[in-house]
């Protein structure tokens, strides 16, 4: 059941627990392995304008990802769909088109938007854990205006430069 506010604390606890269970201590986070450890299969296929989807059949859950998208985007999509699989029950099939437009959106009070915000928050925390970034000298000292430095971090974490920029911004806000 989804509430009226995104469950940030619970989600960060969940992504931390998944990381510990998988024994992951360094980037890039092996998102495929974490998904499969939950008993969820991943299928990469051509999906047109769909980035990813979750299909439930009884107890079986499958995540589909658009194989024509770049690797960093596929990793983010898989993490986003894992959030829906673990947190948002209800629909048998859920399609995500371009959820990136929601990356910066604020809670509007609509359940579906909150689920999208939660899924993007989950994906960012799973792929760019606070614990890793805070222990990473380059991340701790990065100059956000230094595109090359942000690019190096993005590469190390297997995420897009856009996703890394947003994530570093949220860390800076928390530190400040
Ligand atoms: Zn979604």
Question: In a nutshell, what does this entry contain?
Answer:
This protein is α+β, with helices and mostly antiparallel strands. 52% of the residues lie in helices and 12% in strands. The longest helix has 17 residues, at 71-87.
Key structural traits:
176 residues; 4-stranded mixed beta sheet; alpha+beta; Arc Repressor Mutant, subunit A
SSE pattern:
HHEEEHEHHHHH
Looking at the structure, what is the overall shape?
globular
Question: What's the story with the biggest beta sheet?
Answer: 4 strands, mixed
| Average of pLDDT | 88
**Which molecules are bound in this entry?**
zinc ion
Placed side by side, the strands forming the largest sheet appear as 1-3-2-4
Task: Look at the structure and give the CATH class of the domain at 8-128.
Answer: Mainly Alpha
Helix fraction, binned, reads 40-55%
Extended strand count: 4
Gyration radius over CA: 16 Å
Distance between the termini: 33 Å
* Helix vs. strand class: alpha+beta
Strand % is 5-15%
Residue stretches low in confidence (pLDDT < 50, at least 5 long) are: 102-109
- Quaternary state of this entry equals single chain
CATH topology of the domain at 8-128: Arc Repressor Mutant, subunit A
What is the CATH architecture descriptor of the domain at 8-128?
Orthogonal Bundle
Number of helical segments with 4 or more residues: 8
């Amino acid at each position: 059941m989804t509430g009226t506010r995104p469950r940030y604390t619970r989600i960060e606890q969940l992504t931390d627990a998944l990381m510990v269970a998988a024994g992951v201590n360094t980037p890039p986070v092996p998102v495929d392995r974490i998904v499969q450890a939950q008993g969820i299969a991943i299928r990469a296929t051509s999906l047109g304008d769909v980035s990813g989807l979750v299909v439930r059949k009884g107890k079986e859950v499958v995540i589909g990802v658009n194989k024509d998208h770049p690797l960093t985007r596929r990793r983010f999509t898989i993490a986003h769909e894992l959030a829906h699989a673990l947190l948002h029950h209800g629909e048998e099939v859920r399609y995500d088109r371009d959820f990136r437009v929601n990356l910066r959106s604020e809670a509007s009070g609509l359940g579906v938007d909150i689920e999208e915000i939660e899924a993007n928050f989950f994906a960012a925390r799973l792929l760019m854990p606070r614990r890793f970034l805070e222990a990473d000298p380059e991340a701790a000292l990065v100059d956000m205006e230094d595109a090359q430095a942000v690019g190096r971090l993005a590469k190390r974490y297997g995420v897009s430069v856009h996703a890394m920029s947003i994530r570093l911004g949220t860390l800076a806000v928390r530190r400040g």
